[in-house]
Amino acid sequence: RNRNRPFVLLGVNADPDRNEARALAAKQGMNWRSWWDDGRIATQWRVQFWPTVFLLDARGNVRFTNLRGRELEQAIEMLLREVEAGT
Q1: Which of 5, 30, 58, 76 could form a disulfide with 25 if both were Cys (CB 3.0 to 4.6 A apart)?
Q2: What DSSP state is assigned to residue 56?
Q3: What share of the chain is helix, strand, coil (3-state, %, to 5)?
Q4: What pLDDT, on the 0 to 100 scale, is given for residue 87?
Q5: Which H or E element spans position 71?
Q6: How many CB atoms are closer than 10 A to CB 37?
Q7: pTM of the predicted model, to two decimals?
Q8: Rounded distance, CA 48 to CA 19, Å?
Q9: What angle do CA 15, 18, 2 make, to 5 degrees?
């Protein structure tokens, strides 16, 4: 939906079995870049539960956390409009 817009989706997976995590991501059609975490990423970002969602703006600032559904879609659209408007 945001293919030609300034948007990037990244994932981090902390499942115990790295190969099982890859297989599940493929099965579910998760085609975005994703890293397997041995705990360092979760510690650095203070992740306390999975899934945790961080929504960053074009400057890399965390603007929203743990939004879901329509709220997440609206926040993404707002940030995209900001960057497309040059603000």
Answers
A1: 30
A2: E
A3: 35, 15, 45
A4: 66
A5: helix 69-84
A6: 19
A7: 0.81
A8: 23
A9: 80
